[in-house]
Specification:
Mean pLDDT: 93
Largest sheet: 2 strands, antiparallel
Number of strands: 10
Structural class: mainly alpha
Order of helices and strands: HHHHEEHHHHEEEHEHEEHHHHEEH
Oligomer: single chain
Helix content: over 70%
Strand content: 5-15%
Number of helices: 15
Radius of gyration: 25 Å
């Protein structure tokens, strides 16, 4: 089982990481090209039409590959995580179904009009199709992130002991939970940053080659504005996310800080041994002296939350979870033969069901994710993200000073920023997903209880197939994009 669990998690992580190479560029590049087409419609300047068409071509190449990886990712819930899908499919499946029916069909409809309607639609109608394509992609991201956010903080449901499934009680609580809203803002705006860096990097390559100079300079200015707006919004959403995680996933925050023992006025660790006093308390609670629990508090001793609630230790939760699990099994066995005893077992289960998922864990140490991975991924995300923000500020300053063409050091820095923004995005997802372990659904279902009953060999085989296909798609996308960039003449 441990081998199967590792292989299933590895396959899902591989698929998700590949998929996330394409999604942020779709979200961000879509905004940049839509702004450029808006400038064309408003000004009538054919320069903006040609420029928008160029970036639109790159958008289309990326969009097609992203769709292929995303479809496989959704299928894996049924193949590798069938117990998970059975347990929460009534809830988790709803936003994914809406994404497919509404957003995906919306994208498919308007992307055709966007690519083939330049000479067949009026300027305003074509502009509308472009913005609606981007809106469809953004709505698609909304519903997928609603599903993911529910895994981080499950709300709006009730467990049914008869069907052994969690059933949705409040759709709006699921669809518009604070966790979902914050995650959507943070994720989509980080995509704006990715798209903006991509445009700036490609434009700087043109400047280094002394080709398409005017197009490159004007593209950089538009992208820098979009990127800076995305950066400011992303930082604001990140701040809100810190407070939300402190309330709903304190272990993730403790792992991201490598915080063994909680305290008031907790410092923020830049790197081991270098700290900013009080900063973690400010980020997690917006209180200079707020209490932030550490790993030991969560696993062994318990603590009092910022809201004054007594939080049980991991050991206590596991003990209650095992009582809930035993009572549930007793209820299932007795409900047909001894209704009175079954009812008593159900009462016992209801008394402890809040910790039902903890019953599948063997010790409090199981609650601790891989701390070094989460800790360093968090710092890479922040450090590389800050470098990207600096690129946007430099681009705007050099554009204002009319020095974009001459400052070659900036051109090379912008090219370096392109892999950096992708690494920062991947690190963000590592913090979100590795930091949630051992849970598939926070506090509700650990990953070892959600995996399918498969042979390890089947998972290895499909993982190898996916790795080969995804790598081939990625290489093909990069080659096609590079050719389109090399051949472009403004």
């Amino acid at each position: 089982m441990n081998e199967l669990l590792f292989l299933s998690r590895f396959q899902f992580a591989l698929t998700a990481c590949y998929h996330w190479l394409f999604v942020p560029l779709t979200l961000g590049l879509g905004i940049v090209m839509s702004v450029m087409e808006t400038l064309y419609v408003r000004s009538g300047d054919s320069f903006w039409k040609r420029t928008a068409q160029f970036w639109q071509k790159l958008f289309g190449i990326n969009f097609a590959v992203g769709v292929a990886t995303g479809i496989i990712l959704e299928f894996e819930f049924g193949t590798n995580w069938s117990n998970y899908s059975w347990f929460v499919g009534d809830i988790f499946g709803a936003p994914l179904a809406i994404e497919g029916i509404l957003a995906f069909f919306m994208e498919a409809t308007f992307i055709a009009l966007m690519f083939f309607g330049w000479e067949k639609l009026s300027r305003r109608a074509h502009l509308a199709s472009t913005w609606l394509t981007v809106l469809g992609a953004t709505i698609s991201a909304w519903w997928i992130l609603v599903a993911n956010s529910w895994m981080q903080h499950p709300v709006g449901m009730e467990f049914n002991p008869e069907t052994v499934r969690n059933e949705m009680l409040d759709f709006f609580a699921v669809a518009f939970s604070p966790t979902a809203v914050i995650k959507f803002a943070h994720t989509v705006l980080s995509g704006w940053m990715t798209g903006a860096v991509f445009v700036i990097a490609v434009s700087c390559w043109f400047l280094l080659k002394r080709r398409n100079v005017d197009m490159a300079k004007r593209s950089i200015k538009v992208a820098a504005i979009v990127g800076l707006i995305g950066s400011l919004g992303c930082m604001g959403a990140g701040d809100a996310s810190g407070v939300d995680i402190a309330k709903t996933q304190p272990m993730k925050l403790a792992a991201a800080e490598g915080l063994e023992q909680g305290s008031n006025a907790a410092p923020f660790s830049i790197v081991p041994g270098v700290e900013i006093p009080h900063m973690l308390s400010i980020l997690a609670t917006h209180d200079f002296n707020g209490f932030v629990p550490g790993i030991n508090d969560i696993t062994q001793s318990g603590y009092t939350s910022q809201q004054g609630e007594t939080v049980k230790s991991g050991a206590e939760k596991i003990a209650e979870g095992k009582l809930a699990l035993k009572a549930f099994n007793d209820y299932r066995q007795l409900r047909k033969t001894d209704p009175a005893a079954a009812e008593k077992a159900l009462e016992e289960f209801n008394a402890h069901k809040s910790y039902f998922g903890y019953g599948y864990l063997s010790s409090p140490e199981n609650l601790v994710p891989n701390v070094p991975v989460v800790y360093w991924a968090f710092r890479l995300m922040i450090g590389l993200g800050s470098f990207v923000v600096l690129i946007f500020l430099l681009a705007l300053w050099l554009g204002y000073k009319q020095q974009l063409e001459r400052f070659k050091l900036f051109h090379y820095a912008a090219l370096l920023a392109l892999p950096c923004v992708y690494i920062a995005g991947q690190c963000g997802w590592i913090v979100a997903e590795v930091g949630r372990q051992p849970w598939a659904i926070q506090g509700l279902l650990p990953v070892n209880a959600g995996v399918s009953s498969l042979s390890s060999g089947h998972v290895v085989a499909t993982t190898c197939i996916f790795a080969v296909i995804f790598t081939a798609l990625l290489v093909a996308e990069i080659r096609i994009m590079l050719r389109a960039i090399r051949e472009y003449q403004a």
